[in-house]
Design goal:
By secondary structure, this protein is an alpha+beta fold. The chain has 2 domains: about 1-95; about 100-175, PRC-barrel domain (SH3 type barrels). Strand 2 and strand 3 form a beta hairpin. Strands 4-3-2-1-6-5 form a 6-stranded mixed sheet. The chain contains 4 helices and 6 strands; from the N terminus they run αααββββββα. About 50% of the residues lie in helices and about 20% in strands.
């Protein structure tokens, strides 16, 4: 029994860690916490079966943290995400400007005039007075955060279409954008 529970705990913990670390949205993160809870339950079984009280109590605590994560990501954050999705859908049915959720900018591809992906959005910078969107911080190049260059892309040079940020820039023009140096 302890051996099976140990393998289940290992698999659940590894899968849940990948789900939450991937940051693929509220629902995936929330389900990651559900899988973490299964893993914590299996580790509790191992702790009881093998008389490892530290394993038992640490996973009772982690199970409670996982329940908080489920509430936060499948309850609260999913509700916020659903509200933003609803607002986007309503805007598409109304005449005029379509809306999109600013929270969706993170990781959104920046496509050049030929449709090729040039970079990815990192964040949006808004003016404190008035709330106008000034510019995007974008990332280009590198692998997994190593060797990436962060640049400033003026909002006036961007439009949003089909979950992508479109710009008339080409790779050479993009490389001339100001570099953002983290302090």
């Amino acid at each position: 029994m302890a051996d099976i529970a140990g393998w289940l705990a290992l698999a659940a913990t590894c899968i849940a860690a990948l789900m939450t670390a991937s940051n693929l949205g509220a629902r995936v993160t929330g389900w990651g916490f559900v899988v973490f809870t299964v893993g914590a339950g299996a580790w509790i079984v191992v702790g009881i079966a093998t008389h490892q009280t530290q394993l038992l109590w640490s996973n009772i605590f982690l199970g409670l943290v996982d329940l908080f994560g489920i509430w936060r990501w499948l309850g609260r954050r999913a509700r916020f995400s659903d509200a933003a999705d609803t607002e986007q859908a309503i805007s598409r049915e109304q005449p005029g400007e379509n809306l999109f959720a600013a929270s969706g900018l993170d990781g959104m591809p920046v496509k050049g005039r030929d449709g090729a992906v040039l970079a990815y959005a990192v964040d949006a910078m808004l003016a404190c007075s008035g709330g106008e969107l000034s510019h995007l911080v974008i990332r280009e190049g590198g692998v997994a955060g190593v060797g990436e260059t962060l640049r400033r892309l003026a909002w006036r040079d961007v439009r949003v279409l089909d979950n992508a940020l479109l710009t008339a820039l080409d790779p050479a023009a993009l490389s001339r954008l100001p570099v953002v140096e983290p302090a």
